[in-house]
Amino acid sequence: MLKICTVYFDGFYTPDYVERLHDSLRKHSSIDFEFVCLSDTDVKADVVLPYNHNSNIVKHWHKLKFFSPQFAYQNPGDDIIIMDIDQLIVNNIDELLGHPVSDNELVTYGQWWENKLGINGGFYKFKSGSLKFVWDDFAINPEYWQLHFYDNGTVHKKYYGEQNYVKLKVLEHKAKLTKTPSQWIAKYTDDYAENLNLNKMYMQKFDTDFMILDKEVNEKLKVVHFTGVGRKINADYLL
Amino acid sequence: MRIICCRFGNKFTQWHVDNLKHMIDEYSGLKYDSFEVIEDDLYGNWFNKFQMYDKFRDGENLYFDLDMVIYDKLPNLVRKDFTLLDDTWWRAPAHTPLNSSIVSWTGDVSYIWDKFREQDDFYVDTYTKGSDEWYYKFIDYKTYDKVCPSIKDYMYNKPPQFSICTLGQMQHIMEEGWTGWYSDYFLN
What we know:
The structure holds 2 protein chains of 2 kinds. Helices cover about 25% and strands about 20% of the residues of chain A. Chain A is an alpha/beta fold. In chain A, strands 3-2-1-4-7-6-8 form a 7-stranded mixed beta sheet, covered by helices on one side. The longest helix of chain A is centred in the last third of the chain and has 15 residues, at about 190-205. Chain A starts with a strand and ends in a 14-residue tail after the last strand. In chain B, about 25% of the residues lie in helices and about 20% in strands. Chain B contains 5 helices and 8 strands. In chain B, β1 (about 1-5), α1 and β2 (about 35-40) form a beta-alpha-beta unit. The radius of gyration of chain B is 16 Å and the shape is globular. Chain B starts with a strand and ends in a 22-residue tail after the last strand. Classes of the chains: A alpha/beta, B alpha/beta. The interface of A and B includes residues 72, 139 and 142 of A.
């Protein structure tokens, strides 16, 4: 069984982000999957698990729970994908959802824009339980890890650093890190000038005519990721 | 014999109280006369537990935190003298060696409550890491033998040599969506 796991909590986003991701995944995939959302409200998902606001675990750090084989009714051999909800699927995604993965391996987005960290928290794929150390190490002291990368100056916003933590643990435990072809993903924003520049970068990198032109997307693209702090999906785009 | 627990604030719900009673009734083998729940939120934190030393001044008393898993017959945990857990055998040194997830005494130990009430505001402001440090500094106590490990060392395999674990940082496993050996013992 393939499980696609997400987290939603009241704050920056709205429940329709979950629905949009869910619907676009179903529309552009022939692979069967179960869509799970850890949420503090009713959302469109096959399984909705409660988001606990009284927990010592905060915000997007709840994502790490899916690394535990004891969470979300995982079974041995399941393939687990964790996705952020600020994404849209725009073309057939079977190659991404079905991307091969082995035990002790983490598959993440390859991206063509700057990423010094070398990991993208918008997409993690792994075999159920094979990377359980990510959760187990975190769960011993969540308060410490949730502020660790802010306290040491690696990130500049409190409670950021979840990607840094995952990368650290992958390295520590000598897991294999695999990246998907970077041509599959677009970065997009609600800023016209910035989108022009992103298009230009994509065109040059992949020797193609455009990335996203009005509501037309490049045939190689599978996912549009509205990345960056404070960035929302503009409902007018790509729908 | 009196079983005592304490619930206040948003962290724990009636389910947690019912769950403790369920595990005691189904698995612990304990026979008790009353099951008491302290719910008066005087301090907004763990110092609320101290009310039990005022309220229950006679007989045998056995207190449990709500974030425990009880999965087999418990050894005799009832004590004459004021007794609580010593955690130093399973965790790194901390501000206190003590853990009041399990506490027992017989008769009247209201001197603990009286001592605390003398300067309760000061103590609450000073001992911000928990009331266990306060016991360590101000109260004579005895400790249990190795009866209650942390589940953090046994997430994937039930420890057969024990019958109760404290959840500590792992209390999320009581939430919906978690399944492990411990789930079989929680109230559905």
